[in-house]
Amino acid sequence: MATAIVEEICDYLQKGRAKNVKKLVEEALEQGVDAKEILNEGLLAGMMIVGGKFKRNEVFVPEVLVAARAMTAGITILEPKLIEVGNEPIGKAVVGTVKGDLHDIGKNLVVMMLKGAGFEIYDLGTDVDADTFIAKAEEVGADVIGMSALLTTTMPNMKDVVDALKERGLREKYIVMVGGAPVNDSFAEQIGADYYTADATSAAEVAKQAVESRKAS
Ligand code: B1M
Fold this sequence. Notes:
Elements: H1 4-15, H2 18-30, H3 35-55, H4 61-82, E1 91-97, H5 105-116, E2 119-123, H6 130-140, E3 144-148, H7 156-167, E4 175-179, H8 185-191, E5 195-196, H9 200-216
Parallel strand pairs: 1-2, 1-3, 3-4, 4-5
Bound molecules: CO-5-methoxybenzimidazolylcobamide.
CO-5-methoxybenzimidazolylcobamide (B1M) binds near residues 51, 54, 180 and 181.
């Protein structure tokens, strides 16, 4: 069961009260509450409740938006606790949310965990088309292209990136990773991505393993 302060964080997140969330996250850390507990049982749990209400038309976009802002405020405080950045960069990753999709909270968590795993990150933000993903990957000499999608209508845009890589003879050059709530293993396989992971922590673990084994071979 979550500690009282974490339950309060969850409540304030649902109300979209960014200042309260920020202050309580700071207090919880001072009290020695584990950062992962704050993230999972406070911030993410609150956002799941908001998501459920949104689906049932009990709340609407403005309420979801303020909850998302409160979530970002909390994550910003947690970031240094959640990641311990290694000294040596282990690889470069270009990450973004695909074209037509503005959801960035999950993508930002992936960016944070990849940084923690030692990646040099090029965060392209949201609504990123295939040309932009590929141009940045080519420019910086990336190892990984990571794509996030939260909408069933934007998931196919992940395939556009994979197809564009194939058309340009670049597919084998990059480790292509996909994720986001509607994405799964079989979709990743279907579009020809290398890896699907369900959460940001496993995305970082898998990216690290994949880059290390590629460099070793
Ligand atoms: Co949107 N939205 N939204 N929304 N929204 C969903 C996704 C939805 C499921 C809500 C619902 O109906 N229950 C629904 C999609 C339905 C569908 O496609 N089947 C939906 C909709 C419909 C929409 C709009 C169309 C609403 C409208 O305008 N009528 C609109 C679309 C705008 C657009 O993108 N073009 C819209 C808008 C918005 C807001 C702007 C208000 C806001 C986004 C704010 C922001 O991101 N800055 C918002 C939010 C917050 C949500 C919900 C409530 C929460 C999403 C979230 O941040 N979750 C969401 C409901 C839900 O998901 N339950 C919903 C927390 C986040 C940490 O999880 O992103 O899944 P997630 O990331 C996870 C994993 O998926 C994984 O790691 C993270 C955990 O560690 N992961 C990866 C993510 N990317 C990865 C990449 C990887 C690996 C793992 O490798 C590269």
